[in-house]
Amino acid sequence: MRGLLCCLVLLFLLQPWESQLQLAGPRCHTGPLDLVFVIDSSRSVRPFEFETMRQFLVGLLRGLNVGPNATRVGVIQYSSQVQSVFPLRAFSRREDMERAIRDLVPLAQGTMTGLAIQYAMNVAFSVAEGARPPEERVPRVAVIVTDGRPQDRVAEVAAQARARGIEIYAVGVQRADVGSLRAMASPPLDEHVFLVESFDLIQEFGLQFQSRLCGKDQCAEPGHGCQHQCVNAPGTFHCTCNPGYKLAADNKSCLAIDLCAEGTHGCEHHCVNSPGSYFCHCQVGFVLQQDQRSCRAIDYCSFGNHSCQHECVSTPGGPRCHCREGHDLQPDGRSCQVRDLCNGVDHGCEFQCVSEGLSYRCLCPEGRQLQADGKSCDRCREGHVDLVLLVDGSKSVRPQNFELVKRFVNQIVDFLDVSPEGTRVGLVQFSSRVRTEFPLGRYGTAAEVKQAVLAMEYMERGTMTGLALRHMVEHSFSEAQGARPRALNVPRVGLVFTDGRSQDDISVWAARAKEEGIVMYAVGVGKAVEAELREIASEPAELHVSYAPDFGTMTHLLQNLRGSICPEEGISAGTELRSPCECESLVEFQGRTLGALESLTLNLAQLTARLEHLENQLANQK
After folding, report:
1. Which letter does DSSP use for residue 101 in this model?
2. Cis amide bond preceding 491, omega within 30
3. What's the gap between Cα 535 and its chain centre?
4. Cα–Cα distance, 431 to 360 (Å, whole number)
5. Which of 45, 105, 108, 307 is most exposed, with the fewest beta carbons within 10 Å of its own?
6. DSSP per-residue string spanning 197-208
7. pLDDT of residue 126
8. Domain boundary among 536, 565, 594
9. Which Gene Ontology terms of cellular component type are present (predicted)?
């Protein structure tokens, strides 16, 4: 009867308290929290007192936001040993937790509170039991409920637990030792130590404890300063960052984690960082392999669309066409043409360069022999001459063409054996007046003559050809000007170069020059008058008159002039002309003829090769 009465009293006391705690307000939103209750179930805890603690736990659970990503709850009970009622990872629903608490059976032995704290620190709050890793900075809270004095030492082990980041609340009921509660609890003690003196105050204590545990949602208040996320905790808050970021030193702002900078990415070419991850990227012309780290060069030629005539070479920038040896790539970047080495190298040929496959050879004009160096041609070494050049420097020539004239004069000098004993050269320029640029006896080498020709300054103005002829006859071929005495029988040659009609009479002095034994040549360009050229030149006119339609085509006159100025080899002072019917003359004629045929055959072969190349190009275009 007495036991029945006690049960009725117990139900009367507990029912309003649990209901009141449940209805005290909305559930507590503390943010993520790992909460472990450490319940004293020693023999000193009377059955109805243990039932009070059971209901106390159930009431608190109903006020918490329980869930895997919110508050995780674990319960252990202890006496002389420690028993896990359920770990943090066990339940995510409040109903399952309440059922396990209601089925709880007291151990009813000693009071080893220090042992229970040790277990909570090493086991209950381990990741294996369901606690979240320390780097997630989820608060860890232990609530110790006891009714008496511990039978072991608690101060040292409680300090170790607090040092590991576990916040301890100590709750004493009736006979609990206040000193032990204070030794276990976290500071400040007035917020972490609770003492219930009588059962009729359990309702008020439950509300105070819930208020302490939940507190104010500081993340809901402005000014927390978290850049990414604010996480509420009992009485405080902390900041966290989104995946791929880490908290800065101010514990509020977030910094992107540069995984590429750690040097463990393994990318062959480039590592590209992204929040919380990275990916590998290859240089231009390469493709990423299946391992997503190494790179392979793209073989553009294997695509089959390069259109290269000879060979395709794959490069990082794409396909490039390459020609076989002895060929050059054309502007279209695909077709190839046989290389003309004469245009591509400094061949050094004095007269003409002829390409022959992968090589070339030098040719000399008809009547001149190739020297031992394979490049230069022999000169008029037997035909010594006193040569005076009369160059038209009138305004109609124009400066740019006058430069071509000087170049043409130097090409004439190139096939002469210039020396005091060989060929002597003098130069006269005329326009409205006449000027001796240099006389016959001034320079003794071809290099000196050519340099003086290039230094000649353009006179401009009129065209007094007759005045120039008079100057030549009276002065240029005098011994004072360097001409050799007539007794030596050195030929005297005058070459007149003009581009138009003379503004004075030429007939008197043209005739006088021939009477003086001067062999006269006339070279006309452009608007030169043929009748005047014939009157100036010696007979026959066909051998002594040359004409070019413009200054750019003068070079074809060189061969004619060479054959005229340097006539049959061997003519000099004291020598006689050889008969063309002599054996040596016939052999020489045969050699020249064969040389000319060889040159024509070579030119024909080159023309045939070019025609074949053009036919191939047309075939490829079709």
Report:
1. H
2. no
3. 72
4. 44
5. 105
6. -SGGGHHHHHHH
7. 95
8. 565
9. extracellular region
CB-based contacts of 407, cutoff 8 Å, min separation 6: none
Overall pTM surpassing 0.70 (yes/no): no
Other Cβ atoms closer than 10 A to 148 = 19
The answer to whether position 274 is within a domain reads no
Range of 491's domain? 385-565
β-pair partners for 167 = 141
Domain boundary, last residue among 214, 233, 253: 214
Q: Please state, in angstroms and rounded to a whole number, the distance separating the CA atoms of residues 8 and 514.
A: 163
pLDDT tens-digit series, residues 561-619: 665 666 444 333 333 434 445 555 555 556 566 656 666 776 676 677 777 777 777 77
Query: Given its phi and psi angles, is residue 284 left (phi above 0), alpha (psi -120 to 50 degrees) or beta?
Result: beta
DSSP letter for 123, please. I
Q: How far apart are CA 168 and CA 175, in angstroms?
A: 20
Domains identified in the chain, total number: 2
**H/E element, 337:** strand 336-338
User: Which residues, including other chains, have CB under 8 Å from residue 262's CB and lie 6 or more apart?
Assistant: none
Q: Any idea what the CATH number is for the domain that residue 429 is in?
A: 3.40.50.410
Amino acid at 367: G
Q: Would you give the DSSP letter of residue 122?
A: I
Peptide bond into 134 cis (omega under 30): no
Q: 478 in a domain, yes or no? A: yes
How much is the pLDDT for 360? 82
Could you give phi then psi for residue 322, rounded to 5 degrees?
-135, 135
Give the pairing type, strands 386-392 and 424-430.
parallel
pLDDT given for residue 201 in this prediction: 62
Given a cut of 70, the residues of the chain with pLDDT beneath it are 1-31, 198-217, 233-235, 343-345, 357, 365-368, 378-383, 552-599, 602-603, 605-606, 621-622
Is the Cα torsion angle 368, 369, 372, 378 positive or negative in sign?
negative
User: pLDDT value at position 4?
Assistant: 30
How far is Cα 96 from Cα 88, in angstroms, rounded to an integer?
12
CB-CB neighbours of 187 under 10 Å: 10
Query: Among residues 449, 389, 451, 376, which one has the least CA distance to residue 419?
Result: 449
| pLDDT, tens digit (0-9, with 9 covering 90-100), for 513-552 | 999 999 999 998 888 888 999 999 998 888 888 888 877 6
The number of C-alpha atoms within 13 Å of 226 and in the hemisphere containing its C-beta is 18
Structure tokens at 434: 């006449």
Q: How far is CA 578 from the centre of its chain?
A: 75
Residues 527 and 110: their CA atoms lie apart, in Å, by 137
Q: What is the pLDDT of residue 315?
A: 83
- Name residue, tokens 């070339």: 360
β-pair partners for 274: 277
pLDDT in the model for residue 506: 92
Closest CA to 190 of 137, 231, 235: 235
Any idea how long the chain is?
622
List the structure tokens of 152.
Answer: 């072991």
**Residue 403 domain-assigned?**
yes
C-beta separation of 403 from 416 below 8 A: no
Any alpha helices (H) in 387-504, and if so which ranges?
A: 399-414, 446-454, 465-471
| DSSP type of residue 445 | S
Q: Kindly state the DSSP code that residue 407 receives in the 8-state scheme.
A: H
38 belongs to a structural domain: yes
* 222 CB-side CA count, 13 A: 0
Q: Of 38, 19, 10, 9, whose CA–CA distance to 207 is shortest?
A: 19
CB 358 within 8 A of CB 325: yes
